[in-house]
Amino acid sequence: MKQKIASRAAQIETVIKQFLPKEEGYEKVIYEAMNYTMLAGGKRIRPMLMEETYRLFGGQAKVIEPFMAAIEMIHTYSLIHDDLPALDNDDYRRGRKTAHIVFGEDMAILAGDALLNYAFEVASRTLIEYPDVPGLGRAIYILARKPGVSGMIGGQVVDVKLTGKPVKEDELLYIYRCKTGALIEAAMMIGALLAGASEEQVELMEQVARDVGLAFQIQDDVLDITSDSVTLGKPVGSDEKNQKYTYATIHGVEAARKEVSRLTQEAVDLLGKLPCENPFLRELLIYMINRES
User: Fold this and answer.
1) Can you say whether residue 235 is alpha, beta or left, with left for phi > 0 and alpha for psi between -120 and 50 degrees?
2) pLDDT category, 288, cuts 50, 70, 90?
3) Pick from 211, 72, 55, 80: which is nearest to 143 by CA?
4) Distance between CA 255 and CA 104 in Å, rounded?
5) What is the rounded CA–CA span in Å between residue 64 and residue 52?
6) At what angle do helices 105-124 and 64-82 cross, to 10 degrees?
7) Regarding the domain delimited by 2-289, which CATH topology (the fold level of the hierarchy) does it fall under?
8) 3-state secondary structure the chain
9) Where are the domains of the chain?
């Protein structure tokens, strides 16, 4: 499965490169900073989930590709900002020096801003290039809402606000659903929507993605305690360093692993309710939730 994912990630990398800006002009340095982080590697999980959900519902057109690039740009901008000294203050990401170390804190902030804006430039072009595809407007709305103040950013706000303070269970789950789960929800909802899935099916995929997002983050908590920086490609122990309470630190590693298993089964069961199937998508969900890096 690991080789299959790596092969798909390489294909997605080729798609993403088509939409990256050229490194030229007076503002060349910002394009360099954007592309440096975009091409720093990674499993390309979010665009992969989007594409495989699109295929699940029979989608075959290239209209999905700009959205795949856009969601990876949004994810990457969030990583650039997460790594800044004002937030997690990490020097390495995916085994490479982070943007603020290479380009300076000022350019890292601007590169993150630029990637967010550029994501919508890329996605909104579909309204011109694919005018006959239904659901584009709503897809762009989902792409805007899920990473926004009621989604990813909202989760980040609560996370920052509660750093170093005791966290209630509902607060922690809110952070996880928003900060991590929202982009996964966006990916799978957009994939379903653009393939012509029904409203009920889009909502079901949102539920699947919510379980996956929670399990993914809890597994990340476990790895921050049990793994090493070489395997992860980023520092471990950052939650403790940043005085963050996590599911694993509150409930313990074993209880966290049991919750990951429960959420995984729930997501797979929901997926099984659909009249269509994509075996690779099912395998991907199980693999990413139970990953070791």
Assistant:
1) beta
2) confident
3) 72
4) 40
5) 10
6) 160
7) Farnesyl Diphosphate Synthase (1.10.600)
8) CHHHHHHHHHHHHHHHHHHCCCCCCCCHHHHHHHHHHHCCCCCCHHHHHHHHHHHHCCCCCCCHHHHHHHHHHHHHHHHHHHCCCCCCCCCEECCEECHHHHHCHHHHHHHHHHHHHHHHHHHHCHHHHCCCCCCHHHHHHHHHHCCCCCCHHHHHHHHHHCCCCCCCHHHHHHHHHHHHHHHHHHHHHHHHHHCCCCHHHHHHHHHHHHHHHHHHHHHHHHHHHHCCHHHHCCCCCHHHHCCCCCHHHHHCHHHHHHHHHHHHHHHHHHHCCCCCCCHHHHHHHHHHHCCCC
9) 2-289
Rounded distance, CA 33 to CA 30, Å? 5
Token pair listed for 85: 């000294």
Task: Give residue for tokens 């300076």.
Answer: 104
Task: Give the number of other CB atoms < 10 A from CB of residue 91.
Answer: 13
Contact 16, 44 (CB under 8 A): yes
- Residues 15-30 have pLDDT tens digits of 999 999 999 999 999 9
Cβ atoms within 10 A of the Cβ of 275, count?
5
> In this predicted model, what pLDDT tens digit does every residue of 174-231 receive, in sequence order?
999 999 999 999 999 999 999 999 999 999 999 999 999 999 999 999 998 886 554 4
Q: What is the CA radius of gyration of the chain?
A: 18
Contact (CB, 8 A) for 30 and 110: yes
CB < 8 Å & 24+ apart, contacts of 6-13: 8/44, 8/48, 9/42, 9/43, 9/44, 9/48, 12/44, 12/47, 12/48, 12/51, 12/68, 12/72, 13/39, 13/44
Q: Which of 146, 231, 227 is nearest to 182 (CA)?
A: 146
